[in-house]
């Protein structure tokens, strides 16, 4: 089993038994790595997101890296569907994006949240493991659900009125 971890602007890869770690990437722009992901379908494909909005990818287990996409805003976390690993969601400091081609192109979904005050402040995203178009968002507005891959959202009732208390985590 392989793990990758980030600290500051460096990505590390575990060796056998996790006793040693190799530096497999150092961000030359000195921007912190904020999210890393190993593709569950292709374990040699790694994704990493930087604080300055850059999505980078390695297709060879971390030996080489290339810039896949520049968001122009801070990325908080990258999420990947287990059902179809070409489907990625990016949560940024200003909203939500979706890719259906392993990060080559991205669709901005943030405008689909405009009817929910403070919903652009997303704390966590959950992808239904059986349907990558069915997602949930934990936001400052509350809990939101989309059954069409983020094209539309509906609020989910909780014990707290909408907009009164942020939802921070999902499981």
What does this structure look like?
The protein is mainly β. It is 0% helix and 42% strand. The strands form four sheets. The chain has a four-stranded antiparallel sheet, with no helix packed on it. It has a four-stranded antiparallel sheet with strand order 8-9-10-11, with no helix packed on it. A hairpin with a 2-residue loop joins strand 9 and strand 10. The protein is elongated, with a radius of gyration of 17 Å. The relative contact order is 0.11. The model has no long low-confidence stretch (mean pLDDT 92).
List the helices and strands and how they pair.
Layout: E1 4-7, E2 10-14, E3 21-26, E4 33-38, E5 46-50, E6 54-58, E7 66-70, E8 75-80, E9 88-92, E10 95-99, E11 107-108, E12 122-127, E13 135-139, E14 143-146, E15 154-156
Antiparallel strand pairs: 1-2, 2-3, 4-5, 5-6, 6-7, 8-9, 9-10, 10-11, 12-13, 13-14, 14-15
Question: Beta-strand percentage?
Answer: 35-45%
| Radius of gyration (Å) | 17 Å
- Annotation field: number of helices: 0
Q: State the end-to-end CA separation.
A: 24 Å
Low-confidence stretches: none
Q: Estimate the helix proportion, in percent.
A: under 10%
Structural class: mainly beta
- Give the topology string: H per helix, E per strand: EEEEEEEEEEEEEEE
- What spatial form do the alpha-carbon principal axes imply? elongated
What can be said about the biggest beta sheet? 4 strands, antiparallel
Total strand segments: 15
Overall pLDDT metric:
92
Q: Largest sheet, order of strands side by side?
A: 4-5-6-7
